[in-house]
Design a protein that fits this description.
This protein is an alpha/beta fold and 384 residues long. Helix content is 39%, strand content 15%. α1 links the parallel β1 and β2. The longest helix is centred in the middle third of the chain and has 24 residues.
């Protein structure tokens, strides 16, 4: 049995943070009911500039497996009444609307808690429920900018660069899932649910471990370093004779092993590089001294030579090369998901593995209102 079998989740969210959170819960066995507005449904169904075979975007398909869809007009009394009936059967509600929207629709925490005191209500927003920025609309780009992430990303002296991985959106979804699972355990002890809040801003800031450590340790706000690392040196991308690769000499043993491979043992006698703390302080000078040596061999030759002495190293793969690798296959990180319109499509697999109760791909991403009649029939049977 999957660990969340028997747990019902109402997914009243759209686009990324909330749907990602609910998909993770669905992968663990939860019955996730995606509550969508009429006509267009989740706005991400129509996002992105390309399609496979059907009308739903690949982005929607990527974030909504293991869910059932019902269309409810929450602006209407009939839609709200059906939703309230669902709330009475649910364990979790997840919403990520703009601040105040849930209350205006009559589906805020206080209203739903009165219907079902055991309900766990997760609200995901751009900036959280408190503070002077609370009512601002939030997107991942804005969260990355205002949390400081963009200030430390990219190359020194160049235009701002965001993380292409939406750390605010996906981070908020992960933190919300973590909070929901914790609240389920707490409810087993207390018998009551609770309100959980997560935000894109707090997620982006919460993941900024090294950057805040540097700020508080040095008193200086960290700037962009390209591929270099704030805590270790040398630890970055370098150019070989046929392209770039990465390596990480993250401690003294690895540093000495690196010098042996390079034939540059004299650098260990230089007081600017005698230990990691001074190597970090002089990282730019150090890499400039090392760069000519790296141009002497190919990427594959350097990676093989460094791995042979235990120094972590690897090529910079494109996504197609990474996904086609034997290692990705061994990790089962690519799935072919059957779909009533697409036939099948490729999707990422489960990034965490449970050996006793492994996740399952039980349901493909739903068509809009695909399960509406089914869910209403379940409610009618329950009332009867």
């Amino acid at each position: 049995m999957l660990p969340l079998a028997g747990v019902r989740v109402l997914d009243v969210s759209q686009v990324m943070a909330g749907p990602f959170c609910c998909m993770l819960l669905g992968d663990m066995g939860a019955d996730v009911i995606k509550v969508e507005p009429p006509v267009v449904g989740d706005s991400s169904r129509r996002s992105m500039g390309f399609r496979l075979k059907g009308e739903d975007s690949p982005g929607f398909l990527a974030l909504n497996r293991n869910k059932r869809s019902i269309v409810l007009d929450l602006k209407s009394e009939e839609g709200r009444e059906t939703f309230y009936a669902l709330v009475g059967t649910a364990d979790v509600v997840v919403e990520n609307g703009r601040p105040g929207v849930a209350d205006r629709l009559g589906i805020g925490y206080d209203t739903l808690n009165a219907i079902n005191p055991r309900l766990i209500y997760a609200s995901i927003s751009g900036f959280g429920p408190k503070g002077p920025w609370a009512n601002r609309p939030g997107y991942d780009l804005i969260a990355q900018a205002m949390s400081g992430v963009i200030s430390s990303t990219g190359l020194p002296g160049h235009e701002p660069v965001k993380s292409d991985i939406p750390v605010g959106d996906l981070g908020a979804g992960l933190f919300a899932a973590y909070g929901i699972l914790s609240a389920i355990i707490a409810r087993q002890k207390t018998g009551v649910g609770q309100l959980i809040t997560a935000s894109l801003f707090e997620a982006a800031l919460g993941l900024s471990i090294w950057e805040t450590a540097e700020l508080w340790g040095t008193g200086k706000s960290p700037g962009p370093l390209g591929t270099a690392n704030r805590m270790s040196a040398p630890y970055q991308a370098v150019k070989a004779s046929d392209g770039y690769f990465v390596f990480a000499a993250a401690n003294q043993k690895l540093w000495l092993s690196l010098l042996d491979v390079l034939g540059r043992q004299e650098l260990n006698e230089d007081p600017r590089f005698r230990d990691n703390s001074v190597r970090v302080a002089n990282a730019r000078t150090l890499i400039e001294l090392l760069e000519p040596s790296f141009l002497e061999r190919t990427v594959d030759e350097w990676v093989d030579a460094l791995l042979a002495v235990g120094v972590p190293a690897g090529p910079i793969n494109s996504y197609d090369r990474a996904l086609d690798s034997e290692h990705t296959a061994a990790c089962a990180m690519v799935q072919d998901i059957p779909h009533p319109v697409e036939g099948s499509f490729k999707a990422l697999g489960f990034a965490v593995k449970l050996t006793g109760t492994p996740q399952e791909m039980r349901l493909p991403p739903p068509l809009l209102d695909e399960h509406g009649a089914e869910i209403r029939a379940e409610l009618a049977a329950r009332d009867a």
